[in-house]
Amino acid sequence: MPVSGHEAGAGPRPIAVVVGAGGQIGAAIVAELAATHRLALIDIDADRLAAVGADLPDALVFAIDAAGTAEMDAAFAAISSAGTVAAAAIAVGTTTGGSLHELDDERWQQTLDSNLGSVFRALRASGRILSGGGAICVVGSVHAAAPQPGYPAYAVAKAGVHALARQVAAEYGHRGIRVNIVTPGWTRTAHTESRLSPQDAMALDESTPLQGLVEPRDVASAVAYLLSPGARHITGADVVVDAGAALLGGATVLRAGYRASLGLPDRLV
């Protein structure tokens, strides 16, 4: 059930759902959409949600696990009853590493469910309430197409996310629903910075054509555009926001201690 929010029918603006609103990219998406939409915020962390929704008095806020079917369905049903839902942004998942030979069944399944299963449930719930058309944008990962050593389950999950989003785009086009993907490169979040020493971050900055880590607002701007009427003929697209790293084959710069924790050599070729 909602942690906070107005009752159904409050406000004339269309509703945009942000799943994963408590993360840094999710919060940036919320900031981008706040001027044009009433927001429905979903995240597992109630404290982060409270911070993100502090300046949004009409927001619908749900502190739930996106991997839980019953919770997600109930949240989306409540959102639908509150007004017209026009858009959904899905920015969920956790990065988990580990060598393949050390990966047990439980961790494998947890990684798939938190990254792919949660997106599946959010897409399914979105499709049910966007009956009059609308747009969905999924935040993907460069791991889907450019695997890095130490992330077997995560790479498989993210590849599934990309494939699923394209599949839904093909299925839902006749209903007037567009589905697109935004794929961030190395993005300046707390999680990324925990994996990079200052020297590594500088090297990464210098190894990309645009010479800089992607900021969460850069990813959010691309999401907001794909959800906007300006992108009305764009569906099934994958917009890569990576400062041009893919042009050079991507950058693999990881702090030595973090590489060691994954059982990887000091130097990645």
Q: Can you put this structure into words, describing what you see?
A:
The chain has 269 residues and is α/β, with parallel strands linked by helices. The protein has one domain: NAD(P)-binding Rossmann-like Domain (Rossmann fold), CATH 3.40.50.720. 40% of the residues lie in helices and 14% in strands. It has helices at 24-33, 46-52, 69-81, 105-129, 152-172, 190-194, 198-206, 216-227, 256-261, and strands at 15-19, 38-43, 60-63, 85-90, 134-139, 177-184, 238-241. The longest helix is centred in the middle third of the chain and has 25 residues, at 105-129.
On the 0 to 100 scale, the average pLDDT is: 84
The CATH topology name reads Rossmann fold
What series of H and E elements makes up the topology? EHEHEHEHEHEHHHEH
Unreliable stretches (pLDDT < 50, length at least 5) are 1-10
Count of separate DSSP helical elements = 9
End-to-end separation in angstroms reads: 48 Å
Total individual domains: 1
> Tell me about the biggest sheet?
7 strands, parallel
- Work out the radius of gyration: 18 Å
Specify the overall morphology: globular
Structural class, from helix and strand content?
A: alpha/beta
Strand content is 5-15%
Helical content (DSSP H or I, runs of 4+)? 40-55%
CATH superfamily: NAD(P)-binding Rossmann-like Domain
Largest beta sheet: strand ordering? 3-2-1-4-5-6-7
CATH architecture heading: 3-Layer(aba) Sandwich
Level-1 CATH class name: Alpha Beta
The total beta strand count reads 7
